[in-house]
Amino acid sequence: MNFRTTLIIVVLLAGIGGAYYLFFQEPSDQTTENEKPPIHQVYGVTHDTVQQVEIAFADTAYQDLKLVKDTAGNWRLTSPFQADADSEKVSQMLDDILNKRVKQTLEVTELAQYGLDTPSITLSLWTAAGTSPTFFIGKKAINFSVYVKEKSETHIFLIESSALDDLTKSPTDLRDRSVIKFNPETVSSIQFTHRKAGASTINCEKRGDTWHVIHPIKAKADAEEIESLLSELRALKVSSFEADGADANVLTRLEKFGLDDPRIQMKLTDGDNTYTLDIGAPVASETGTQGRVYVKATVYQDAIYTVSENIYHLLSKSVFDLRYKRVIDFQRLNTVRIEIKQGEETTVCTKNFDNTWELQTPTGKLKTDPKAVDDLLFGVDALEAVAFVNDSTESLAAYGLASPSIEIAFTQRREEKPAVLLIGDYTQDGTVYVKPEQSNQVTRVKRDLIDNIALGTAWLRDKQVLNFHIDDAIRLTLTLAGGTPFTCQRLGTNWRLTAPVREDANNAEVNAIIYELDDLMADAFVGSRSIPTDAATGFDKPNVELTIELKNQKVYTLQVGNQVDASGRFYARLQHEPNLIFLLSAERIPKLKTTLELVRTSEE
Fold it and tell me: Measuring CA to CA, how many Å separate 486 from each of 322, 514, 545?
């Protein structure tokens, strides 16, 4: 081999090596990864300073994108059509590309071999400072890199090839999926038009901090219901984008989506903006509906989406749904007196300075059941209509309200006139007609609370049956139906049988009954208007009769009669108050019983 041939071979090998080094082998770099500068540092661009973004694709399968930031800092998609963008996703996309580190800079003269003469992606950025860098994204290199060139520069550089994924976005990828984007706090009006049974429209308007129904009736609206609706509507997301206003055929295809005559149309005013949302047909498939409906929203342009069918249920509101349903307004925490008038009977409950309540009765003051008083105050305060009576101003007698069966008045601290609720007739569907004294509106409410109010003192009184100290008990007599009655007397700290035998008693057995009597609580008292006969209650032949005598010479006899019903409770009363009947739970009864044999059993 001569020298000329050898020289040619050497030159060829050097060329091949250089080409490999240039195109396939990432040059060795002594700097660490953290020392390689990111794009945002090299070009002085961060996602916060970018005001406009354009992404152009060489592949026509992708749509070119233009995004613009508005004065409020929110991103909008302005091309290929107008729509709100998801600002978080746009910022993330910009962060991903601008935080890519420049792996290596290359001085080249031919761009074609790097794919930069016709770049696959062109990214143009405009900043608030007036700079407008444009980046061409070219071919992939080895080691997960891609060639990039800034338009105004002669050199090229390498960054991670994941930049291609960062920027390959469709309009759908970057769109805000909110069905309607608005501020629930500043909405001033909302309108619903339903076409289920002919067109019917409901208009609601916010005046100050209060919502009102202004059509088809004029009434105070349920602010909580409307605010909940707006909050849910704001949180609803688009399931899929079907067509945009830029599509010239959208309006000709409305029938396909059930939007030529929408089932519901909602119009919402937020400041200077008015949004319209039409609810169309359910989305169907071979297996039936998929839990979605078609909707058409008018924001920038008409657009058709699919949304969870929850939106149909959310907007299917009746006038009743939107009306304020609270029956009577009063401040339960400021209430100091409750008066229940029922025929000739009046129940009065007053609040003491220590915030405890007591009942005023003809025979004296009684302790109240704190839970019952709280249930009454909270129940009436939260009482809501289940139906409104439209002709209420003309026909009070028809509802039992011309002469109410019950009147309940709540006197509030520093208020001259009490808030009064009039209670009328019961209906066949289990509701009751009621009306605030100061209003002409009659409503129907559920009967549960009214049933308790009708009990008066029986509901509100303290449920403790006896009130004594166990050490004050000196004599106990027990009689069981079919059993042998016996009497025990306390001698010091011990008990002794005095009848029918005289001997020491089982202290533990007797004391267990004394403790049970001391702690005996009624489940409920039976109202004076519904007292059963002695035969019905079993008091003519009691199952259990307990007589206890105290040191102060007071004597109480507890009688337990028949079981009331399947609830397992038993009728009971104190013999000296025969008309004050109460109910005891089935669990209590065995604890009030024992036998002479057990009382005679000596303690070990």
Answer: 67, 15, 11
